[in-house]
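re: ur question from yesterday

yeah so i grabbed the chain u mentioned. its 840 aa long if i counted rite. heres the sequnce exactly as i have it in my notes:
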Amino acid sequence: MKFGLRLRGGLLATLIMFGAPVVAPVGAVFVSSSALAQTVQSISVQGNRRVEVETIRSYFKPGPGGRLDQGAIDDGLKALIETGLFQDVRINRGPGGQIIVSVVENPVIGRIAFEGNKKIKDEQLTAEVQSKARGTFSRAMVQSDTLRIAEIYRRSGRYDVRVTPEIIEQPNNRVDLIFTIEEGAKTGVKSIEFVGNSAFSSYRLRDVIKTRESNLLSFLASGDIYDPDRVEADRDLIRRFYLKHGFADVQVVAALTEYDPEKKGFNVTFKIEEGAQYRVGAVDFRSSIPNFDPSSLRGYSRVSVGSLYNVESVEKSVEEMQIEASRRGYAFAVVRPGGDRNFEAHTVSVVFNVDEGPRTYIERINLRGNTRTRDYVIRREFDISEGDAYNRALVDRAERRLKNLDYFKSVKITTEPGSSSDRVILIVDMEEKSTGDFSISGGYSTTDGALAEVSISERNLLGRGLFAKASVTYGQYARGYSLSFVEPYLLDYRVALGLDLYQRQQLANSYISYGTKTLGFSPRLGFSLREDLALQLRYSIYQQEITLPFYLANCNNNLGTSAFNPSPAFAAVNGIDLSSTNGLGCYSDGEASLPVRKELANGKTLTSALGYTLTYNTLDNNKNPTDGLLIDFRQDFAGVGGDVSYLKTVADGKYYAPLVSDIVGIVRLQGGILTKINDDLRMLDHFQMGPNLVRGFAPNGIGPRDLNPFGTQDALGGTKYWGASLELQMPFWFLPKEVGLKGAVYADAGGLYDYKGPTSWTATNEVNVPGCIPSTINPTSTGTCTGLVFDDSKVVRTSVGVGLIWQSPFGPLRFDYAVPLTKGKYDRVQEFRFGGGTTF
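ran it thru and got these structure tokens back, copy pasting raw so excuse formatting
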């Protein structure tokens, strides 16, 4: 390979003055000073095939008078070499001092091919290399392309890659360029260590970063692949984590990476200087803007005296205050936080200074990189537009919103100077990513048995920011399908419109004697009131019916063949009048409970309901929370048409708090009330509870129940319930973090009571008693069918248990073993429970 050497004109002139010939390594020969009087037109070109003579002459720029001096010739020679069009350039002196430029053109690339690449496609490599088919061949460019291909593989975690370029000469000064690639195996992270951390364990800090250690299940994920950019981003995540927990002086000094040839992987070490933990000593507000009262912004502060100093809270406070000042007409107001540290008391006095910022306006918002997403989908995430005052808080909020859309791999908003000093241009750089998902999910639980689901979804349908999903579920006891559609900006307002169409079938199993079929449609509107507060309004309309096998609904009401003969003790406990057992023959050969059969007689029932949900969420992580509060309050009013009417109110609150040694405490309180409006309540409208309220009990295992020992003894549900739970989750410190196993211990308490559904039924004809056999039914002679219901509001169900939680690559799995301590007389127990699923 021949390389060009660039020599400055001064050195050339010195060598020429002493008569020394100068030859460049590429073969370029420089003329002597006798050629200084030549003009461009006296330059003769030899050896060119594709490049025009005038093009080559154009690189020589004459001086005053149209004459070429030695400097112009030197510059022309260097310029020709730098074009990359020639592999050899010589300048010689001809007769009469004529300048002769002899060139040997670089070959033309006929084709570019890649061999040995399996993990990265040809199209991606072709787009990355600078050498192009039908372009000029350059050895320097080939060397650069070789390094570029190797870097692409390193970014995907393959550091053992080897790239060898091969040049095959063809006729007519053409070559074929072949890159032979040995991809090698992925290079993983074998260990992650932390040095200098005392406030938080290494186990806890591994939760903060994205890089993971390699393990047996690493082939299902990519977090263990070494990526220097990800490691650098992890440094910032660690720093932000410490700043969030009061360590204002923290420094992540270095992220040291070392390749271990024996383990064939990297060892990553984060070196941390924690410093002291600070609390907020005082909060003050100041303003340099006339007639602006800074204390009026106190309500927008998320920083309180005595709390841990939290940089995220300070930043959110600044954002809210600056936006509020803009709403009040101070478009150029800038809120700048300040902090005065007391190193002895370990406190920070926070001051929010409101000043008049520079009067800068937004000239344009330029979008780059959105090849699929429509411009308006991006622009609607901005609360500012062209011509508005520049507000950094609103720009940062827009950037955060764009990242949360999950349409892009990266989003970065920068500014450039505009057409004048008071104008700026916002540059939004994005990199698109795939937003479609096709999944096959499978799972098993002690309630629903084996279950499989196939779904297809798109988060950015047609590049318009729409969400659509279709799924089909088929299982041992549950089957159905659902269609969902969401328009996140209804009529260009920040209001989400959702539409759901679903059909579900629940089959009879060991916990319920009946099956149900439900077909429904539900539109909903979602509002974000604040970042931590959301409101959803919904309307639901669904048709529901019960299915029963014939032998559970034949309504044999012949007292003469009744096998039910309650004892005096049984009658005394359950309030049965033994002087007349009229109607109890309805259960004589094991029929389903009376309320169930009455639902069957009613046929298909239509429910039309309006409802809303108010959600307060301050969790630090929605998937694996360790700190924060989540409260849901829901109400549904049925009776807007349809066949039933009621008011259902439900509240559910969870509080997470980090305790010592990576142990997380969870307190959960829940409750619900079902209120009758006009019509009688159906059995199906009641709350049904089991392990979802108190673990250790079977599904539908708690609360009011049909008692007839010759019937199916179905759970009937209740109109009131409450529950409380205390749980401690802790890691298994002796296992690698990447295994994802945690243990739990817990105690639950709760109750379900006050059944208000049907307890009697007067059968007047066969239409009202489906499945009845005329020869065996005589409802007029036997009178009213009566149900026996156990409903004791004084019973409090309690249990204690242990659990195993696995955040597996197959999805979240949980195993629970709970022992009831107190229970109702007819409750049903299920000590072991398992549930989970996956997407693959």
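noticed a couple things. The CA atoms of residues 586 and 744 lie 47 Å apart. also The longest strand covers residues 515-530.
anyway ttyl
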